[in-house]
């Protein structure tokens, strides 16, 4: 059963989602990934959103670029939390996607993360944090992850002190 459903608007979005795939795998969270478009396959996108909760999904991650309506359309058809990743698409480098995704009308929220591949990683971490609210083992893994991340910064800092020491 996939706890997280990832939907991207186009195959051209796939590379930006590698961080999301890697992070969910790292935490052992089962997920599925689909390519469906709010504009090109509106019925299939709506059906996915409507059926997801019954199929076991707890959180959606949606990636789209340009007039990025996918996350909003998915959110319109489910009460599951929806995390949106704006794609850094040309010609506006993702500012168009960001505004389309983040400017949801009151009543239908989309938790929008940063654009591009950093957004993929953060979307997955946010999904893990949501799932960890009711999963103590996952919460412990998150704590370990944060500690390892902090330890790396501190190790880099210590190494820098040695490098710049007169
Ligand atoms: C959006 O339009 C997709 O999410 C993609 O980011 C963008 C361009 O799609 P393609 O023309 O590359 O399929 O719907």
Protein described:
This protein has 166 residues and is an alpha/beta fold. The model has no long low-confidence stretch (mean pLDDT 97). It has helices at residues 18-26, 42-52, 70-76, 95-102, 116-132, 136-164, and strands spanning 4-8, 31-35, 59-64, 82-86, 111-112. Helices cover 49% and strands 14% of the residues. The chain binds 5-O-phosphono-beta-D-ribofuranose. Residues 9-10, 12-13, 37, 64-66, 87, 89 line the site of 5-O-phosphono-beta-D-ribofuranose.
Query: Rg, please?
Result: 17 Å
Helix content: 40-55%
Listed once per kind, the bound small molecules are: 5-O-phosphono-beta-D-ribofuranose
Tertiary shape = globular
CATH fold name of the largest domain = Rossmann fold
Would you identify the regions where 5 or more consecutive residues have pLDDT less than 50?
none
Q: Based on helices, strands and strand pairing, what is the structural class? A: alpha/beta
What is the level-2 CATH architecture name of the largest domain? 3-Layer(aba) Sandwich
The overall average pLDDT, rounded, is 97
């Amino acid at each position: 059963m996939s706890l997280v459903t990832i939907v991207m608007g186009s195959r051209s979005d796939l590379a930006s989602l590698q961080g999301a795939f890697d992070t969910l795998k790292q935490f052992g969270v089962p997920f599925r990934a689909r390519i469906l478009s709010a504009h090109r396959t509106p019925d299939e996108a709506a059906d996915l959103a409507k059926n997801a909760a019954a199929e076991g999904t707890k959180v959606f991650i949606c990636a789209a670029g340009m007039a990025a309506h996918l996350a909003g359309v998915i959110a319109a058809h489910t009460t599951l939390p929806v995390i949106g990743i704006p794609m850094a698409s040309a010609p506006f480098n993702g500012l168009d996607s960001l505004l389309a995704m983040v400017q949801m009308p009151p009543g239908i929220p989309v938790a929008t993360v940063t654009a591009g591949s950093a957004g993929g990683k953060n979307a997955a971490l946010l999904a893990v944090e949501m799932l960890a609210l009711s999963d103590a083992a996952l919460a412990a893994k998150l704590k370990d992850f944060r500690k390892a991340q902090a330890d790396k910064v501190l190790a880099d800092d210590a190494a820098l002190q040695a490098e710049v020491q007169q």
